[in-house]
Amino acid sequence: MSSTPVIFAASGLRAGYGGPPVLDDLSLSLRRGEAVGLLGLSGVGKSTLVEILGGHARPTLGQVTLNGVKVTSKAPHHRKAVKARLRTVHQNGLTGIDPHRTVEKTLTDAFTQARRAGRSTNSDVEGALLGVGLPIRFATRTIQTLSGGERQRLAIARALATRPDVLLLDEPLTAVDPTMREEIARDLRAHAAEHEIAMLVASHDLALLDQLTDSVHVLSEGRLVESGALRDILRAPSHPDTRAIVEALPEAVAANRVLRA
Ligand SMILES: Nc1ncnc2c1ncn2[C@@H]1O[C@H](COP(=O)(O)OP(=O)(O)OP(=O)(O)O)[C@@H](O)[C@H]1O
């Protein structure tokens, strides 16, 4: 992986909401096809970081680049490319989408967006749905009729439909039941590996992080304070926040029954 090129980089990020900064001089990078988790106590700034990395919010300082292009660039050709190549699955699923839009239209719009940005896509609505465990009969349903878990799955399908280089996921499967979650995570991981999609997954769900990612960062006090393989970090946490996360684990996880061998 270390010989694979870095395609996504954030450097010197500072951000907040008027009070003390939530992110402070934070830097990170992703190599092509790399899957990284983001762990941290509640309120530490994971969603804030994901929103900034995805270009949905601006940092006070620092910058984020995808293939060397600023994700907040206003140049039309950059915007088009970034929109297709960098996708975010937000914590609340399909925010900002017209609730009367059908599932099929949601996906075909994403395919169109991909083509406009010069990405090759097979425009396969059924395949996109099946990839997240939704049957084809869902194509004619409107967004407002979907359950929370179905919306989350559609949000992932929509993000993948543009053939992104980088996928940012913020608690992507919280509303999906654990059995389905495992299956979707497995398919997502396989899809990302096949298409060399780099992923950053922010989640409190350690089993999900274990399944989806190669390594994790721990965010605390505005910075990444610990990084490495999830199992190593849980076995020997060095930062007080990581120790707090480990101490709060249910016994089954601590006994390594949730993180499977
Ligand atoms: N719009 C906002 N205005 C003011 N403060 C905010 C706003 N959004 C987030 N915050 C604060 O910024 C901090 C970081 O929030 P953020 O949602 O990024 O944390 P998080 O790590 O994703 O939390 P969780 O794990 O609970 O989802 C928190 O203290 C939160 O209260």
Automatic annotation (TrEMBL):
Keyword rRNA processing among record annotations: no
- Gene Ontology MF: a single term: ATP binding
* An example Gene Ontology biological process: transmembrane transport
| Transmembrane domains' residue ranges | none
Q: A Pfam family matched by this chain, by name?
A: ABC_tran
Superkingdom, taxonomy of origin:
Bacteria
As for family, the record states:
Belongs to the ABC transporter superfamily.
Q: What name does the UniProt record give this protein? A: ABC transporter
